């Protein structure tokens, strides 16, 4: 009987924790739950998007002609990052930022390889592929993000 009670309590606790991030206790939004807001952003900002299977909405403005980045590439990019209310939260618009593609948010790991060096892409990234329910540096948890990125160089 005692084992049954402990098993029941364990199952209840397991069910209550489903869908939550173990170390934060927050519940990540699904890309599907953010899709309406993401489409509205694209519409309001003249973005003719394609939907990636991951839920990213993107427009390749210029495909580029140089090297194609991979997850092991180091990339240099000019970019602007915005919340969906158009507040800029980060940017590198005059001097390219350089970083290993493996060290950025999942949305960039998926979206940046869609273009080549010299290319430009606009991406609306679901929060699950950005900072999830945790957020960071003034970005609230469960915030989809917009990025306008020019891929300057691939190494």
Please give the structural blueprint.
Layout: H1 2-17, H2 31-44, E1 50-51, E2 57-62, E3 74-83, E4 88-100, H3 106-111, E5 120-125, E6 145-154
Antiparallel strand pairs: 1-2, 2-5, 3-4, 3-6, 5-6
Overview of the molecule:
With 155 residues, the chain is α+β, with helices and mostly antiparallel strands. The chain has a single domain (28-154), classed as Chitinase A, domain 3. It has a six-stranded antiparallel beta sheet with strand order 1-2-5-6-3-4. It contains three helices and six strands, in the order H-H-E-E-E-E-H-E-E. It starts with a helix and ends with a strand. The model is unreliable at 1-21 (pLDDT under 50). A hairpin with a 5-residue loop joins strand 1 and strand 2 (57-62). It has helices at residues 2-17, 31-44, 106-111, and strands at 50-51, 57-62, 74-83, 88-100, 120-125, 145-154.
């Amino acid at each position: 009987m005692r084992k049954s009670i402990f098993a029941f309590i364990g199952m209840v606790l397991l069910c209550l924790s489903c869908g939550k991030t173990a170390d934060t206790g927050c519940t990540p939004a699904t890309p599907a739950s953010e899709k309406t807001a993401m489409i509205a952003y694209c519409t309001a900002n003249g973005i003719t998007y394609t939907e990636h299977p991951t839920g990213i909405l993107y427009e390749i403005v210029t495909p580029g002609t140089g090297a194609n980045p991979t997850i092991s590439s180091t990339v240099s990019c000019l970019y602007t990052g915005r919340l969906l209310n158009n507040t800029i939260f980060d940017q590198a618009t005059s001097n390219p930022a350089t970083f290993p593609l493996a060290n950025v948010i999942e949305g960039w790991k998926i979206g940046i390889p869609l273009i080549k060096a010299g290319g430009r892409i606009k991406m609306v990234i679901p929060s699950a592929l950005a900072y999830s329910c945790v957020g960071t540096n003034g970005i609230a948890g469960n915030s989809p993000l917009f990025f306008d990125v020019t891929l300057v160089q691939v190494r």
